[in-house]
Amino acid sequence: xxxxxxxxxxxxxxxxxxxxxxxxxxxxxxxxxxxxxxxxxxxxxxxxxxxxxxxxxxxxxxxxxxxxxxxxxxxxxxxxxxxxxxxxxxxxxxxxxxxxxxxxxxxxxxxxxxxxxxxxxxxxxxxxxxxxxxxxxxxxxxxxxxxxxxxxxxxxxxxxxxxxxxxxxxxxxx
Length: 174
Description:
Elements: H1 35-42, E1 55-56, H2 62-71, E2 76-80, E3 86-91, H3 92-98, E4 116-117, H4 128-138, E5 142-146, E6 152-157, H5 158-170
Parallel strand pairs: 1-2
Antiparallel strand pairs: 2-3, 3-4, 5-6
């Protein structure tokens, strides 16, 4: 990075100029190089195709939750309290790691016993790169979308992101 005050060359990411000690942090912002990068840095989660969440209560029997996942062809159900606030998520991964081969019989046990409590969430106004970072850092395939009251308003998956990016790439001039 070239210091705007003295013209000295500094290493990328350096916070202060090595020559004049000028603050460089505001100049070291990432800039998008193409339409896809611009979309990830500027578009919000609300641009993804909305998927109304499939919800269950914490006391729903696991058999019923699995049935809803199969019926709605979804990889996760959101667990909400009586006020509609998100309290957990039950995903295919939870079923594989916490149920399969671990609990027999499990069908009548409550979802609350196997769900991931207090899951990472995003708001519709969060940037896509923020949501992607959460997914990558946590290894999540499904992320709930909640409003400012903590109510679930949707869910998106890694497949939704891939579909969105594929469309962006297809519309990018060569």
